UniProtKB/TrEMBL annotation:
PANTHER family: MITOCHONDRIAL RIBONUCLEASE P CATALYTIC SUBUNIT, PTHR13547. It comes from Ceratosolen solmsi marchali. It is found in: Mitochondrion. Belongs to the PPR family. P subfamily. One of its GO terms (biological process) is tRNA 5'-leader removal. Transmembrane segments: none annotated. Signal peptide: none annotated. InterPro entries: MRPP3_PIN_dom (IPR033495), PRORP_C (IPR031595). It comes from the Eukaryota. Keywords: Hydrolase, Metal-binding, Mitochondrion, Transit peptide, Zinc. This is Mitochondrial ribonuclease P protein 3 isoform X1. Residues 15-248 form the PRORP domain. One of its GO terms (cellular component) is mitochondrial ribonuclease P complex. Pfam families: PRORP (PF16953).
């Protein structure tokens, strides 16, 4: 083993080490893994053994017609999740933050899809009309789960597609049977999911960029970068956030 210089504790910003300026390895899922993930998710998260986990036979048929005819999207929005994030005491949900996001990506020339539930159509016809002028929409029944459709349509749209939601989707990841595919799912999710926070003062949604690099120990010709955390528990929680601290180890020249 090569001799290493002193340990340096650093933060990683946008995939770049602040100590040595090295760019960390970007997330990489090969075509076969992506294909297997898409197929497995359909079978395990939407269609179960003799039952439909997320929907009804009629709705599934409508959904299949939709995805078989759709063109790839750049972004899929979890409409209900975003709408509920800014609802007030006097309204069931707000379509304004959805419209704001749609307009932002529409200005960039990107294709957007909003997944939601039918009752969202009752909130504000004027705002919904503006949304549907600049984005496609797909609404599930109010008794159906919409998250499985959100993730599956994002997968079916292709590896270039992002989605927006604050839901970490842990329950859907665990419906995948293959342990390897569970890891592939999380890797894909971290690199494709925009989280967001609410700016209550400005009454806006502020998007948090996906993590574009591998959050694991990385080795290069120059040395090592190792993420770490301090915790009193033996088993660490299933983290979906960027480790605050990394160890930067450089080879002695």
């Amino acid at each position: 083993m090569k001799k290493l210089q002193n340990t340096i504790y650093v933060k990683i910003f946008m995939g770049i080490c602040k100590s040595c300026s090295q760019l960390l390895q970007t997330t990489n899922i090969n075509k076969e893994e992506f294909k297997q993930l898409s197929q497995s998710f359909m079978q395990n998260a939407i269609i179960g053994k003799n039952i439909l986990y997320a929907s009804s036979p009629q709705e599934l048929k409508r959904y299949m017609i939709f995805i078989n005819s759709m063109k790839p999207y750049n972004l899929v929005i979890d409409g209900l999740n975003v709408a509920y994030a800014m609802r007030t005491k006097t309204e069931a949900g707000s379509l304004k933050p959805i419209l704001d996001i749609v307009e932002e990506f529409h200005k960039k020339g990107q294709r957007v899809l909003v997944i939601g539930r039918i009752h969202m159509l009752w909130w504000s016809k004027k705002t919904m009309k503006l949304i549907q002028e600049k984005a496609d929409t797909f609404f599930t029944k109010n008794i159906s789960e919409d998250d499985p459709f959100l993730l599956h349509v994002t997968l079916m749209s292709g590896p270039q597609t992002y989605f927006i939601s604050r839901d970490l989707m842990r329950n859907l990841k665990y419906k995948l049977i293959d342990p390897h595919l569970k890891n592939v799912f999380k890797t894909w999710q971290l690199s494709r999911q925009y989280l967001y926070k609410i700016n209550k003062h400005k009454k806006t949604v502020e998007l948090i960029e996906p993590i574009s690099f591998e959050m694991k120990t990385q080795k290069s010709e120059e040395g090592w970068h190792i993420p770490f955390t301090c915790d009193t528990k033996l088993i660490l929680p299933d983290s979906y956030s960027l480790p605050e601290k990394w160890i930067c180890l450089k080879n002695k020249k």
